[in-house]
Design brief:
Layout: H1 2-11, H2 24-30, E1 31-37, E2 43-47, E3 52-55, E4 61-67, E5 69-72, E6 79-85, E7 88-94, E8 100-114, E9 117-124, E10 131-134, E11 147-151, E12 154-158, E13 162-169, E14 172-184, E15 187-193, H3 196-201, H4 204-223, E16 239-240, E17 250-266, E18 274-289, E19 293-308, E20 316-322, H5 335-344
Parallel strand pairs: 16-20
Antiparallel strand pairs: 1-2, 2-3, 3-4, 5-6, 6-7, 7-8, 8-9, 9-10, 11-12, 12-13, 13-14, 14-15, 17-18, 18-19, 19-20
Length: 345
């Protein structure tokens, strides 16, 4: 996943072929056939060993014939190449000097075009993930995806915790829906987002970070463990409140289930977009009172966690608290007093 992108960056440009062959006579003797020509009259050729190289418009070899296959890319600045590495036929990209610009880690690189927008889907050889490149072979997303489905003009990407549906048009990829799985105290929840306005403000890393930090706040609210907040970017804010912190009759709080959760935009006094996550949590509370001793109460309580930010780099958790100030304890009638009243009657 992310390793693929880092690998691509780390090895790009570090390989170059210095054994460029010049001279028309040597080229002519080894050439078997011309395969393809780009807009600058550079030609991919195949030699008598079945390997591919490139000559320019003057018949000078600019990429030596050492590749298992070559194919010009859309913008005629790179070539998709095949190379046998440790017995495996892998794909990557080279420039017109033979330098590797995209690492040879892919089993397939496929071109797609939607009117004026084009991109490549690159599939690594060791798993079912994919990386999306634009027509210049720059990663379109700053990540890889665990898997994908492409149907007409809709691309569905999947990660370990999320499913993201994109519409493809002349302007590129546009996020249309997102579903991300979060977890808090071994209780899973699913955040579904379908608002185009909200999705236009969010990136996938932001959505996943919000889902993760929401779970951390819920755990803090039930356990009171301040160390959990250290894993959340709060910007130094202290607006995070535990569940019923001032009720000293509560002996324990247990999260049973998260029955409802959704995200929405909220207004703010600054110019930075703000978002909120509403969480309805089914809860079991053990408490003590003078009449019954220890009792158990089950109810639903709603928390709101607010975030702000324009990207994953400045995403900040602003606050978190529950709407209810205290539980609604059941009213227990005094049986002794009732019997006294009945006897007097």
């Amino acid at each position: 996943m992310v390793v693929i992108i880092l690998l691509a960056i780390s090895i790009t440009g570090f390989y170059s072929d210095t054994s460029v062959i010049t001279g028309n006579d040597g080229f002519r003797a080894d050439m078997v056939s011309n395969i393809d020509k780009d807009s600058s009259d550079n030609v991919i050729f195949r030699d008598n060993n079945g390997l591919f190289g490139i000559i320019d418009s003057t018949d000078r070899i600019i990429v030596a014939p050492e590749w298992e296959d070559l194919k010009f890319t859309k913008n005629n600045s790179l070539c998709i190449a095949k190379q046998r590495i440790d017995g495996n036929l892998l794909m990557g990209c080279i420039d017109y000097e033979g330098n590797i610009t995209v690492p040879f880690i892919y089993q397939n690189i496929e071109y797609h075009e939607y009117n004026s927008f084009s991109f490549y889907i690159a599939e690594p050889a060791d798993d079912n993930s994919c990386v999306i490149y634009d027509e210049r072979f720059v990663p379109y997303f700053r990540r890889s995806w665990d898997s994908y489905t492409l149907e007409d003009d809709v691309m569905i990407f999947r990660t370990e915790n999320g499913t993201y549906k994109y519409l493809i048009n002349d302007d590129g990829f546009h996020l249309r829906s997102a579903e991300v799985i979060g977890k808090s105290m071994d209780r899973s929840y699913l955040i579904s987002i379908g608002s185009r306005i909200l999705l236009s403000k969010l990136s996938v890393p932001m959505i996943e970070k919000i889902a993760e930090d929401t779970g951390k706040y819920i755990e803090f609210a039930y356990t009171g463990n301040d160390d959990i907040l250290s894993d959340i970017t709060t910007g130094g804010r202290s607006g995070f409140i535990r569940l019923f912190p001032d009720d000293h009759s509560i002996l324990s709080k247990k999260l049973l289930n998260i029955s409802e959760i959704y995200m929405y935009s909220v207004r703010s006094d600054d110019t930075v977009p703000h978002y909120a996550v509403s969480v309805t949590a089914e809860t079991e509370i053990e408490y003590s009172d003078e009449k019954t001793g220890h009792s158990t109460l089950k109810d639903k309580y709603t928390a709101v966690i607010e975030f702000s930010g324009r990207s994953e780099n400045d995403l900040t958790a602003v606050s978190g608290s529950f709407e209810q100030e205290k539980p609604e304890y059941p009213v227990i009638e005094d049986v002794t007093e009732n019997r006294t009243e009945e006897n007097q009657t």
